[in-house]
Design goal:
Blueprint lengths: L14 H9 L3 E3 L2 E2 L11 E2 L4 H11 L2 E2 H8 L3 H11 L10 H9 L1 E9 L2 E8 L2 H6 L4 H5 L22 H14 L3 H8 L5 E3 L6 E3 L7 H6 L13 H16 L5 H18 L4 H18 L8 H10 L1 H8 L5 E2 H7 L2 H4 L4 H13 L4 E4 L4 E4 L6
Antiparallel strand pairs: 1-2, 1-3, 4-6, 5-6, 7-8, 9-11, 10-11
Helix pairs in contact: 3-4, 5-12, 8-9, 11-12, 11-13, 12-13, 16-18
Length: 380
């Protein structure tokens, strides 16, 4: 049997187990996902993971079109297209957009990398190591923020390669914690380049020259013709600016918020290049206004703000892990994928679970010894 399926007798499971698998989009019959418990005579297939995760695994290893994936999983195109469209969505508010989740859990985003006639091939494009270390907001690589550094306060002199300063060490702690990379490894890579630092309302950022800075924009650029399939207009640009203003009104955001914001601006600039000069000029003006605020002195990002990004990105992962059986938060934490655990602590998982329970996303049950959580919704 293919690794995409598991060999179990679905009809022998309890109704609670059946509903859990159906809710996680792991049951298919004929060419469709099952949405209700089927008749016992109906043949079904049980996926080894939620369809969303299986599709992401495929994108992580290569380029796939929606028809190819639909054929691979024996489903109608619309079932796969629904997942792909959802994965490409970027949110205007909050921390639960799929783009932020993919950046937090896989350090990648979904991109359309080739277009043959009307068929687009997608893949997960990972953040290059160089960008993770030297450009954590993506602004230098995607938006050529280096040309705007005169607007930012320079807070260090030129630091030669091989030298280590206090600001390097502080930066390595923050960036290492965000990506789950050992801070000494971050420090060694960072200090192999000449650099100076500018101040931003998020944290001091290094300015480093070199051809490696172009790698992120090459990976995140979509294929010619892909941008034309999506709507880019002034309303979309205004939404980006409103998102940023909302972030500032709430007291700022962590790295994930700026990464997604700068990706959205980058996509708009790419989509308008040579096609809509007026909208491109408007977008560049909005970008200038955003960078002016980004350059303002503000309280530096700390561990609490980075933890907030990581906690928020947990919600969908936790809903995948939880089932109908009440489970202590410590066991939930152990079940998390390693890449997710790198950015959060057991206490942060407990806080996220508690918050989800308060709004009714999951159920919380207190016992004499612990607090347990299950996926069953808290609303009747």
């Amino acid at each position: 049997m293919s690794s995409e399926y598991i060999d179990i007798d679905f009809h022998e499971l309890s109704n609670n187990e059946k509903r859990r698998l159906i809710r996680k989009k792991r049951i298919a019959t004929n060419s469709e996902l099952v949405t209700e418990i089927p008749d016992e005579r109906t043949p079904v297939r049980v996926f080894s993971k939620p369809l969303r995760e299986l599709i992401l695994d495929k994108f992580d290893r290569g380029h796939w079109s929606i028809p190819e994936l639909a054929d691979e999983f024996g489903l109608q195109d619309r079932e796969v297209r629904s997942v792909v469209n959802q994965l490409r969505r970027m949110g205007e508010r909050g921390f639960t957009s799929p783009t932020k989740e993919l950046l937090a859990t896989r350090a990648a985003i979904l991109r359309g990398k080739s277009l043959n006639s009307t068929i687009c091939h997608y893949s997960l494009e990972s953040v290059p190591y160089h960008a993770r270390i030297t450009d954590p907001t993506f602004g230098m690589s995607l938006l050529n923020m280096r040309e705007c550094v005169s607007s930012f306060e320079r807070i260090s002199g030129q630091i030669p390669a091989g030298s280590v300063s206090d600001i390097d060490e502080d930066y390595a702690i923050v960036i290492g914690g965000f990506w789950g990379i050992d801070e000494q490894e971050v420090l060694e890579y960072l200090t192999s380049y000449p650099r100076h630092y500018i101040n931003t309302r998020l944290l001091p950022l290094p300015v480093i020259e070199g051809e490696e800075n172009d790698e992120l924009s090459k990976r995140f650029s979509e294929a010619e013709g892909v941008y034309a399939r999506y709507r880019y207009d002034r309303h979309r640009v205004d939404e980006i600016q409103e998102t940023f203003e909302s972030m500032i009104e709430r007291g700022g955001t962590g790295l994930l918020g700026y990464q997604e914001l700068f990706i959205r601006i980058f996509d708009t600039l790419q989509a308008t290049k040579g096609r809509d000069p007026s909208l491109r000029v408007y977008t560049e003006r909005v970008l200038e206004e955003i960078l002016e605020v980004f350059a303002e002195e503000e309280e530096l990002v700390g561990e609490d703000e980075i933890a907030e990004d990581n906690r928020a990105s947990l919600e969908q992962e936790l809903q995948t892990i939880l089932d109908d059986s009440p489970t202590p938060s410590s066991l939930v934490y152990e079940r998390l994928p390693t890449v997710v655990k790198q950015g959060v602590t057991p206490r942060e998982v407990e806080e996220t679970l508690s918050r989800m329970a308060r709004v009714g996303l999951i159920t919380m049950k207190e016992t004499d010894d612990s607090v347990e959580y299950s996926f069953e919704t808290g609303f009747f």
